Fold:
Amino acid sequence: MIILGYIAAVLMGMVLGVIGGGGSILTVPILVYLMGVTPDVATGYSLLIVGATAAFGAVRYFKEGLVDVKASILFAVPSIIAVYLSRAYLMPAIPETISFQSLTIDKNLGIMVLFAALMLASAAMMLKKAYSKSTPATQVIEKKQPNIGLIVIEGAVVGVVTGILGAGGGFLIIPALVLILGMPMKNAVGASLFIIALKSLLGFIGDLQAGIQLEMPLLPLMLVATFIGMAVSTKVAGKLDGAALQKFFAFFTLVIAVFIMTKELL
Structure:
C-alpha cells in the first residue's frame, strides 16, 4: 500500500500540473487511505505537499506568461490570511466530536464529508458552465471589470475551506477565476498554482505553530514523487485544449467526491 501511495503521488503531481487543481483532492485520500495518516493530520501534510508542488509548477507557467500576477494576488491575499488563521486557531479549537442534539459527528468524518460536498458543488458549477448553450466551453468569456469585493470574499472563503480541509483549493479557485474573472482556462491553471503555493505554504506555517508532528521519511518522499509528476505534466499541459481541460477537471472532481462519500458514509 505504501508503494501504491507514492505512485499515486506521482499521479497527483501530474493532475495538479495539468489542471491547476485537484492535487489536494488526491493528496488527502492518498495519505488517509494508503498511508494510514489520520484526516486531521493529513490535511496539514497536504498543505505542505501541495503547496511546494504548486510552487514548482507555477514557476514554469510564469515563464510562459500564463500567470496574471495582479489578479492572483488580489485573490490570494485574503485567502492567505484566512488559511493561516484557520490552521493556527480554528482547527485546534474544533472538538474531536461535535454534537447536535442527539447526533454526534466525529471530527475526521466531518472533514472528509465536507471535503466531498464542496467538491460536488464545484464540479456542478464547472459542468454547468462547460455545457451551457449560451456560453459554450470553447468560447472565451468577454473581459469585464472584475468585482473586487466579490473576489476578496471568494478568496477569504476559499482560505477558510483550505484551512479546515487542508485542500489547496484548486477545485474552488479554478471556478472562481473562470466564472468571476472570465479568465481563460490555461491562464486560470497558472494563476491557481501560484495562489495555491502561496496560501498552502503559509497555511502550513500555522500547522507548525500549532505543533504538528512531521513524519519522516514520508513527507520528503511524497514531495519527490509529486515533483516528478509536476515536471512531466508542465511539459504537456500547454498543448492541451482549454475547454477539454475544464470538462476533465469537473468530471475528475465529481468522481473523487463520489468515492469519498461512498467510502465514509457506506
User: Anything to note?
Assistant: DSSP finds ten helices and two strands in the chain. The radius of gyration is 17 Å. The first strand starts at residue 97 and ends at 100. The longest helix spans residues 185-210.
